[in-house]
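Field log, afternoon session.

UNIT: design team B
ACTIVITY: writing a sequence onto a fixed backbone
BACKBONE:
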């Protein structure tokens, strides 16, 4: 059997070898995908095949070119996709052979119409400058990727070790924020002298701090200690405001009592005792002496000291009223009663005044009344004796006797009705019985 002549693929590969050897060692072959719209692979392959065959025909004898017809579409496609570099330009072909190959390509194109459009790979040689640019681009991409990775790792580390707040720390921060709000409320209430509202905010802050667990965190423990010191200072201010409120209340109660100083029902002794307790301890006013409080509230005590002077003046006035004034009043009233011979009523008035004003010197007034009663009774006795003598006189007429008896009886009855002193009344009744 005669040997099979070489195929076009073999001729293409043999023609590519000299071209490959001529490329510089620094060159690099790169596959580039070229898409040719509107044409099928068979058409593209056909054009390429036409060029290859034309070149081959110039490089080889005509009997060799005609002896190897294209056997299949796959061979045409393979030839069309084979990179060419320095194809053999010695092959030649006649017009009839080219026409035959085109007919075969048309038949193959009809079959490949059902196949999707594919891409043709063309090998391109890169220059040294392009290779340097590609290497630099690759280094830049690699460095950029590494930088992005490092940046992401750094961001995660920053969040984890610096920005991340765990549950315990978040709770502590929230509690400290709440306590700071309470501190602001306490400060505002202290400015307004409202100790009760400040105390409520203080208790809330203390309760919030009880649940604060720093868990060996130095910064949180320091903040808690700082807040505790602030609350301690505010608590002292709250106590000071509370003392101020108590002092103001005690002072006002005393001033209200001093406003009734001239009222006879006001107990001067009790009021003086309360005032002295306030001066000794304006805060508690319980009698326990406190030099510190007495010094701190000396200004509030000054108003009470002024009222104490008024209290002393009222005592003098009341003493005079209980001694001189009652005597003068009783003396004027008894004089009128003595003129009316109402000695008993005068003595009763003196007794009543003595009960109201024990310090009143009423004995002279009493002596005046009893002396006037005695003198008046002596005069009555003389009058009755004279009338009795007229009745018993020898030679007196009946009319004179009757007139004497009538005058004597009238005088004695007046004594009985007005004198009001039992001793004189009984004597008058005895004398009246002597006149029939």
């Amino acid at each position: 059997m005669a040997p099979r002549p070489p195929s076009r693929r073999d001729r293409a590969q043999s023609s590519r070898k000299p071209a490959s050897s001529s490329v510089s060692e620094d060159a690099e072959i790169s596959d580039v995908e070229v898409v040719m719209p509107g044409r099928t692979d068979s058409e593209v392959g056909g054009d390429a095949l036409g060029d290859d065959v034309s070149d081959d025909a110039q490089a080889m004898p005509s009997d060799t070119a005609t002896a190897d017809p294209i056997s299949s579409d796959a061979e045409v496609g393979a030839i069309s996709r084979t990179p060419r570099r320095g194809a053999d330009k010695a092959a030649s072909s006649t017009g009839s052979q080219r026409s035959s190959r085109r007919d075969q390509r048309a038949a193959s194109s009809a079959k490949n119409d059902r196949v999707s459009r594919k891409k043709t790979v063309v090998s391109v040689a890169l220059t040294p400058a392009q290779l340097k640019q590609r290497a630099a681009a690759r280094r830049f991409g690699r460095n950029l990727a590494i930088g992005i990775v490092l940046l992401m790792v750094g961001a995660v580390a920053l969040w984890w070790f610096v920005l991340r707040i765990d549950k315990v720390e978040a709770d502590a921060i929230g509690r400290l924020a709440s306590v700071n709000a309470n501190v602001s409320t306490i400060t505002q209430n202290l400015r307004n002298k409202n100790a009760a509202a400040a105390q409520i905010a203080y208790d809330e802050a203390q309760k919030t701090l009880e649940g604060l667990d720093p868990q060996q965190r130095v910064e949180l423990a320091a903040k808690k200690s700082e807040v505790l010191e602030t609350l301690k200072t505010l608590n002292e201010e709250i106590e000071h405001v509370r003392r101020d409120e108590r002092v103001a209340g005690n002072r006002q109660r005393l001033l209200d009592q001093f406003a009734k100083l001239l009222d006879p029902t006001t107990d001067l002794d009790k009021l003086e005792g309360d005032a002295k307790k306030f001066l000794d301890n304006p805060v508690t006013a319980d009698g326990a002496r406190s030099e510190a409080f007495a010094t701190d509230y000396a200004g509030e005590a000054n108003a009470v000291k002024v009222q104490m002077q008024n209290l002393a003046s009222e005592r003098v006035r009341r003493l005079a009223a209980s001694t001189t004034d009652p005597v003068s009043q009783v003396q004027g009233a008894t004089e009128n009663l003595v003129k009316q011979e109402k000695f008993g009523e005068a003595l009763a008035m003196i007794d009543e005044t003595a009960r109201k004003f024990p310090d009143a010197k009423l004995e002279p007034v009493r002596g005046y009344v009893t002396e006037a009663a005695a003198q008046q009774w002596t005069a009555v006795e003389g009058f009755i004796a004279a009338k009795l003598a007229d009745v018993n006189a020898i030679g007196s007429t009946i009319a004179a006797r009757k007139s004497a008896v009538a005058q004597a009886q009238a005088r004695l009855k007046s004594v009985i009705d007005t004198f009001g002193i039992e001793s004189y009344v009984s004597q008058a009744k005895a004398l009246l019985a002597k006149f029939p």
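LOG NOTE: The chain has 16 helices and two strands.
NEXT ACTIVITY: expression trials, pending approval
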